[in-house]
Design goal:
Number of domains: 2
Radius of gyration: 17 Å
CATH topology of the largest domain: Rossmann fold
Oligomer: single chain
Distance between the termini: 20 Å
Helix content: 40-55%
CATH architecture of the largest domain: 3-Layer(aba) Sandwich
Strand content: 5-15%
Shape: globular
Largest sheet: 6 strands, parallel
Order of helices and strands: HEEHHHHEHEHEHEHEE
Number of strands: 8
Strand order of the largest sheet: 5-4-1-6-7-8
């Protein structure tokens, strides 16, 4: 059986990344990032840079933006507060669902699969985004960046999600968009596929080391 076909079977559970996998959140994240940067006197970041940096959590996003401008991290805590406040108030102004997300999640649920969200986003922000885009009803479990001692790329979030779903790692498929997601799945011991056009930190989807690449979530159904 080929590496590509090995994951192409129904799973009892699916673990989904959020940013870059289910929702294109970069536009709103970019505005919040630039709000924090500009209030502290730094230059705004480009959309391309924001998309490259998204996926490791808000603090790392800010640190990468400051590092790119060769600035110290002294103001990160204050900038983090500015970022989170602004983002929470404008969390879905410009963010949009990727094609086939709603129909695919509904189809997976209809056939009896359990679904979990596994993200490095804070719980408060994740819940707000899911509610704004009416996605919360699809998920049995939410595992966010402040739920486990180690976030992705450690395997802890995926393992924790599996336990809460009462499923073994051989019974779930991780669906993400980046090396962070692939590393998390590998550390947890579950299969993983990546969407073709997510936030892959500059690495092509076919080079991420996943078991397969999908164009949209419809390929899972």
């Amino acid at each position: 059986m080929s590496a590509e076909s090995s994951w192409q079977r129904p799973y009892r559970g699916y673990l989904f990344d959020l940013d870059g996998t289910l929702v294109d959140t970069a536009p709103d994240i970019g505005v919040a990032l630039n709000t924090a940067l500009e209030r502290k006197g730094y230059q705004p970041a480009s959309d391309d840079h924001t998309r490259h940096w998204v996926g490791h959590g808000a603090r790392v996003l800010l640190e990468q933006a400051l590092e790119h401008q060769q600035q110290p991290f002294d103001a990160v805590e204050e900038m983090l507060e500015i970022f989170i406040t602004h983002y929470a108030e404008h969390i879905a102004d410009r963010s949009t669902l990727y094609p086939d997300v709603v129909a695919s999640l509904a189809a997976l649920r209809a056939r009896g699969a359990k679904l979990a969200l596994v993200t490095n986003k804070l719980t408060s922000l994740s819940v707000a985004l899911l509610e704004a885009l009416e996605l919360q009803k699809f998920f049995d479990v939410l595992v966010c960046g402040d739920n486990t001692h180690k976030p992705k790329p450690a395997g802890d979030p995926a393992i924790y999600a599996g336990k809460r779903l009462h499923l073994g790692m051989d019974e779930v498929l991780f669906v993400g968009d980046s090396q962070t997601d692939v590393a998390c799945a590998r550390a947890a011991g579950c299969s993983v596929v990546c969407v073709a056009n997510g936030y892959n930190h500059g690495t092509g989807a076919n080079a991420l080391g996943a078991d397969g690449v999908i164009e949209t979530l419809k390929d899972l159904v």
